[in-house]
Amino acid sequence: MAEPWSGQFLQALPTTVLGALGTLGSEFLREWETQDMRVTLFKLLLLWLVLSLLGIQLAWGFYGNTVTGLYHRPGRGHSSAESAGDREENSQDVSAPA
Q1: Are residues 32 and 39 in contact, defined by beta-carbon separation less than 8 angstroms?
Q2: What is the mean pLDDT of each run of 10 residues along the chain (98 residues)?
Q3: Which of 27, 51, 50, 29 lies closest to 38, judged by CA?
Q4: Which InterPro entries match (predicted)?
Q5: Domain extents for the chain?
Q6: CA 53, CA 47: separation in Å to the nearest integer?
Q7: Is 6 helix (H, G, I), strand (E, B) or coil?
Q8: What CA–CA distance (Å, rounded) separates 81 from 78?
């Protein structure tokens, strides 16, 4: 048999949890406001991150095609089946006695 207070407890649970979260949030805000150096450092690092990402994006816009051209190796234009056949022929040539 269920006790009569368990229903009241379940009804009050969301209010209790929200109250605890509200208290925790207000405590965090008070701590945040008193730690001026921490806030300043956070803002500085966030600004540095955003500026770095913007710089990378800008540099890639200018030099992206050049970098891609340096590292892109164009193929011979054969299909994969022909390439596999070429590899088999090459491996036979190497293993054949001279």
Answers
A1: yes
A2: 63 82 85 80 93 96 89 68 53 52
A3: 29
A4: TCTA
A5: 37-67
A6: 10
A7: helix
A8: 8
